[in-house]
């Protein structure tokens, strides 16, 4: 039997753990920051990754299932919020400015005519997905195009650390169905209030999603599930996570929607997991369930459920500090400080 703790990865892990333990502090004294530092080292392949820049890419797209009344807001809000992002008026813009992160906004498939704005990145797959209650949300070719566009966008970013956010009325429904098909968990354990549904609205949303889920086999592989139930922004985000992992850059995974994209990326390429750092636990009902299924421990838990990449942005200063701990903090030997006896 092969020793799972043997080999280059295990040797590298021990090297980084020893480096962290020999910093001028008691072992484990920085708690989860040390775990983040260890993951940064594995993500980048360097025991001393100097990570000084962060970029948020917001993917926007519409969903055909929104026609079933599964959101408290009309579909027009997707387009309106894209313009708000471009005008730097959204929470994501404000948070990005506060933590020193750059922002890109991508039209992955907003309903209606293309938005004409010089700062908008155009990667439209189509004017929103089809209604997944009636059939597949997208074709296989559209799914593949979205995944590839996401990979290319991640590879083109100059930032050391990448955050991915989303905007799309109806996308909590798509994320719920993806998690249901990939994790095998009941819809009722994953569905939430999204943009703020009341009890009657939540009951209606649950019934719609259960009917949509019944349309296909109980378990689907990631690429099939993405075509059947995903959104263009979710597919593009999953592709971007794969592209970031390929270039050995850490990804700060935001909330419920982003975690669904991460789940897809992990099923396509499990090794991408070493680059995925879960930024926060969303208040959206199913997010805790998804995180538990992934055995993921998020950095923050602030009761947020906005999306847009806001939770990922707020985790960035902690991630940057963890990187600085690896690169800049003195060891007992270099500082001339006595270690533990």
Q: Could you describe the 3D structure shown?
A:
- The protein has 341 residues and is of the alpha/beta class.
- The chain contains 13 helices and six strands.
- It has helices at 8-21, 32-44, 76-86, 91-99, 140-156, 171-183, 199-213, 222-229, 232-246, 256-268, 285-293, 310-328, 332-335; strands at residues 54-61, 102-109, 120-122, 161-167, 251-253, 276-278.
- It has a six-stranded parallel β-sheet, sandwiched between helices.
- The longest helix is centred in the C-terminal third of the chain and has 19 residues, at 310-328.
- The model is unreliable at 1-6 (pLDDT under 50).
Cα distance spanning the termini: 38 Å
Poorly predicted parts = 1-6
Report the structural category. alpha/beta
Query: Beta-strand percentage?
Result: 5-15%
Main sheet: strand order: 3-2-1-4-5-6
Mean pLDDT figure: 96
In terms of quaternary structure, what is this? single chain
Largest sheet: 6 strands, parallel
Topology, number of strands: 6
Elements, N to C (H/E): HHEHHEEHEHHHHEHEHHH
Tags for this entry?
341 residues, alpha/beta, 13 helices
Brief overview, please?
The chain has 341 residues and is of the alpha/beta class.
Q: What is the topological layout?
A:
Blueprint: H1 8-21, H2 32-44, E1 54-61, H3 76-86, H4 91-99, E2 102-109, E3 120-122, H5 140-156, E4 161-167, H6 171-183, H7 199-213, H8 222-229, H9 232-246, E5 251-253, H10 256-268, E6 276-278, H11 285-293, H12 310-328, H13 332-335
Helix pairs in contact: 1-2, 2-12, 4-12, 5-9, 6-7, 6-8, 6-10, 9-10
């Amino acid at each position: 039997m092969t020793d799972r703790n043997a080999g280059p990865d295990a040797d590298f892990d021990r090297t980084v753990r020893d480096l962290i333990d020999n910093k001028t502090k008691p072992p484990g004294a920085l708690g989860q920051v040390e775990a983040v530092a260890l993951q940064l080292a594995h993500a980048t392949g360097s025991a001393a990754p100097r990570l000084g820049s962060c970029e948020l890419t917001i993917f926007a797209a519409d969903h055909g299932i929104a026609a079933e009344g599964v959101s408290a807001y009309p579909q027009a809000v997707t387009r309106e919020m894209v313009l708000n992002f471009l005008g730097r008026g959204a929470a994501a813009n404000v948070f990005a400015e506060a933590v020193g992160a750059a922002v890109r906004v991508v039209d992955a498939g907003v309903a209606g005519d293309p938005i004409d704005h010089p700062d908008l990145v155009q990667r439209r797959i189509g004017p929103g997905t089809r209604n997944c209650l009636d059939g597949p949300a997208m074709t296989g070719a559209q799914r593949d195009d979205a995944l590839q566009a996401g990979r290319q966008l991640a590879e083109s970013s100059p930032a050391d650390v990448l955050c991915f956010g989303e905007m799309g009325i109806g996308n909590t429904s798509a994320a719920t169905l993806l998690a249901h098909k990939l994790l095998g968990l009941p819809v009722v354990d994953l569905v939430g209030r999204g943009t703020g549904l009341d009890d009657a609205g939540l009951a209606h949303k649950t019934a719609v999603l259960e009917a949509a889920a019944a349309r296909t086999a109980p378990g689907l592989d990631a690429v099939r599930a993405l075509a059947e139930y995903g959104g263009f922004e979710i597919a593009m985000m999953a592709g971007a996570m794969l592209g970031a992992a390929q270039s050995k850059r850490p990804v700060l995974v935001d909330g419920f929607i982003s975690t669904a994209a991460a789940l897809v990326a992990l099923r396509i390429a499990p090794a991408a997991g070493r680059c995925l750092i879960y930024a926060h636990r969303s208040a959206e009902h199913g997010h805790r369930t998804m995180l538990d299924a992934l055995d993921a421990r998020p950095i923050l838990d602030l009761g947020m459920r906005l999306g847009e990449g806001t939770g990922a942005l707020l985790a960035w200063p902690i991630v940057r500090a963890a990187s600085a701990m690896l690169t800049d903090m003195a060891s007992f030997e270099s500082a001339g400080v006595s270690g533990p006896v």
